[in-house]
Amino acid sequence: IALARRDGLSGYEGLYKCIIPDENGVNQTLVVGAYTDTGYSNNDGPDADPTMQFSLLSTSRLATPPVFSLSFNVSDGPPTTVSCSVNGTGISTELSRVIVNGSGSVTRVTVTVGLREAGNYQCNISNARVTHGTISGVTPVTSTSSLKISIFDTPTGFTATRLSTGLAQVRLSWSTVSGATGYEVYYQLSSNTPVSVSNTSFTTVNVFTSLSQGSTYTFYVVSYGSASLPSGNASVMLTISNPVINNFTVTTTTASFITLTWSPPTAVVPISYNINRRCSRVCESSITSNSTTSVSSPHTSTGIPPYSQCAFDLIGVYGADQPFLKTNYIVTTLSTAPTAPVGDIIFSSVESVSMTVSWDEVPCNGRNGPITGYYLTYTNITSNTSYTVNITGGDNRMYNLTGLIPYTNYTVSIIPYNYNMNGPARQEIQLTAESIPGVISDLRHARTPTRINIVWNLPTMPNGIITEYEIRYRESTSTGPYNIANTTNTYYYGIVGLIPNTSYTIGVRAYTSIGPGEWTDREYTTIKIRKKLLRILL
User: Could you tell me which residue ranges the Fibronectin type-III domain spans (predicted)?
Assistant: First the structure.
């Protein structure tokens, strides 16, 4: 390849670039310097910039080894040979040369290095001329460009801590590296390519996005400076596990409140807790819901009816994330005495000496616990005589009363109880049915020769409303039928037309609507007729 010019070089001195495609169609560049003697004397180079410029080429500071470039300008002649070393030891480089546009003969030289080593990097530049040695009294020189590259220490104390502001938010922190101007942080999921999440001059960074709950991540941090290679990386692994509470428990249970306690989740402590409560009395299906925010352990849930079953949900507040840490934890409040009486008292099969008593159950909102039995007390209002029966079992709501007195008012009182705690009583009055009356009492008489007057008192046991009295009589020696008489509203009767000095059997009995009672019989004798003696006074 030759560069030919027929005319003089004045005004045409400098570097000529020839672009020649090779057999593969790839352009190759040939640079030729053409000078007059005077120009050659002025371009005795190459003269390189004494200090190289550093640029990191690796897309990631985690690259091993890191790839970087060292660049410098060469004037006074094109560089033909570039050889580089670090700390005096030659290194392999990739070289590129570009003619800089503009006046003068300047070539931009860039060497690419893949190495992680601190020290003095130096490149020696020379060129080969058509004629070796001195030309027109000018001897070509060799120039040197160098740069000291440092590598800062690997950060220490690298930790990953989960934040309470979100379930998948992490705080990364490390110790300060002396002299470093920045730090780059990465995360890596499984064997995927590490992803840069922050370039910072601080030693703490919060990762609020990109992470997923339930995954395990490796975090990396490297330090670097303005003209330095990135340090080796420090790494830490963290699993973004779901927060779990294993000791959510109840410490105190009363009839009206429940105290709950728990320890913070092992994975990450929330900012605060919310509690959802769903309660219903054991005897009914309707549910009352309640939510309480910003609670802490221990927490007392109040305003709960006695003997209510409550389901609790514990919710962790992690900013916008609010997962359920515990669900459907069941607690039942204690029982207390019933505060409501039984329902309606119902009387059936009411007879003169017996009746059946039944009653409706205690309303649910007044039971306050399982009804375990009833005390039934029935009282004869007339005699003020009471009897109490203990009926066990909350479902036994019927009892037969026997041995009662006919046509008598009874007060029936029923007290429900919850184990040993009595509730209020409900009472009703019921009158027994009529029966046949008892015998009359205190039957007396007055007599004349032809008449017997009898009187009596109301039966001691009337057993109903006395509707009439029946009187019977006949001579005591007679076996024939009785003479019958009736009276409705008196306690006396006069029997007339009798035979003087004659014995009579007289009976009296009372009637109710049911029928007659027993006879009360007596024998009474009419008196003699007295003869008047005529005393003749002589």
Answer: 154-245, 341-436, 439-530
Q: Residue 502 CB: number of other CB atoms within 10 A?
A: 16
Could you tell me if 309 and 280 are in contact, meaning their C-beta atoms sit under 8 angstroms apart?
A: yes
Which is nearest to 357 in space by CA: 375, 339, 338? 375
| Beta bridge partner(s), residue 189 | 217
What pLDDT is recorded for position 537? 44
Contact 499, 450 (CB under 8 A): yes
Which of 170, 131, 145, 119 has the alpha carbon at shortest distance from 37? 131
Give the DSSP H or E segment for 493.
Answer: strand 492-495
* Separation of CA 466 from chain center: 74
pLDDT surpasses 90 at 267: no
Q: How far is CA 20 from CA 26, 29, 50, 93, 456, in A?
A: 8, 6, 32, 24, 159
Q: Is 504:474 a contact under the CB 8 Å cutoff?
A: yes
Q: What is the pLDDT of residues 408-434, one digit of tens each?
A: 999 999 999 998 899 999 999 999 999
Strand-pair category, 216-224 with 182-189? antiparallel
Query: Minimal CA–CA distance to 130: which of 143, 140, 121?
Result: 140
User: Reading across the β-sheet that carries 355-359, which strands appear in turn?
Assistant: 345-348, 355-359, 398-401
Q: What is the pLDDT of residue 1?
A: 60
pTM across the whole model: 0.70
The Cα–Cα gap between 293 and 301 comes to 12
Three-state SS for 408-429 is CEEEEEEEEEECCEECCCEEEE
Cα separation values, 522 from 266, 441, 492, 504, Å: 103, 12, 15, 8
Please, what are the domains in the chain?
A: 14-149 (2.60.40.10), 159-239 (2.60.40.10), 249-322 (2.60.40.10), 345-431 (2.60.40.10), 441-525 (2.60.40.10)
β-bridge pairing 468-475 and 426-431: unpaired
**3-state secondary structure string across 118-171:** CEEEEEEEECCCCCCCCECCECCCCEEEEEEEEECCCCCCCEEEECCCCCCCEE
Could you count the other beta carbons within 10 Å of the beta carbon of residue 320?
8
Question: Which residue has tokens 């003089």?
Answer: 8
Which residues are within 8 A (CB) of 16 and not within 5 positions of it... i.e. 6 or more apart? 3, 31, 32, 33, 34
pLDDT per residue as tens digits for the range 124-171 = 988 776 656 666 666 667 889 999 999 999 999 999 999 999 999 999
Neighbours of 56 (CB within 10 A): 17
Three-state SS string over 162-222 comes to ECCCCCCCEEEECCCCCCCCEEEEEEEECCCCCEEEEEECCCEEEECCCCCCCCEEEEEEE
